[in-house]
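Hi F.,

I've been meaning to write this up properly since the lab meeting, where we talked about keeping a consistent format for the predictions we share between groups. The idea is simple: the sequence comes first, exactly as it goes in, then the structure tokens exactly as they come out, then a line or two of notes. No screenshots and no reformatting. I'm using this chain as the first example so we have something concrete to point to.
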Amino acid sequence: MKLKKWVRIGLIVAMIVPLTACGTSTSRKNAASSRPKPTKVVKTPIEDTQFMMGTVVTLRIYNKGKDNVLAGAFKLLKTEAKEITVNQKGSEIDKINAAAGKKPVAVSKDIYPMIKAAYYYSKNSDESFDLAIGPITSLWHIDFPMPRCPLNKKLIRTLSW
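Output, unedited:
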């Protein structure tokens, strides 16, 4: 019985292998010409560091001649940060938090995948990332002009929630 199984597998492989080589030389040439040309990689990256979203963000670009991309990347991050912050009234995350347990909130196409990824990492990071830490960090008033150390009773009350 095992021999018949291996014979069938061998026949299937024997039929598939020749098919993978099928194709015209023209289609191969077109496929090769449609590939983007590789960009030269540099040993020392173009780099910038900025403080945003309550943390230090460093971006590095290793592609030669892509200096202009760095400013655009930070601009995009700043735009997204305005929508994902919990500290700005009217941000998409603020709207979600305000409606929590009451009604659904429509979000932009970028926000839902971010929340889904954050939820995944919150569940699968062995507690090194916690999506639900917002109420605790907001007690410190981080990323505001006058950060402060909260009272223990406020921390305990918030943690017990």
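Notes:
Residues 1-7 have pLDDT under 50 and may be disordered.
The two ends are 63 Å apart (CA to CA).

If this format works for you, I'll send the rest the same way.

G.
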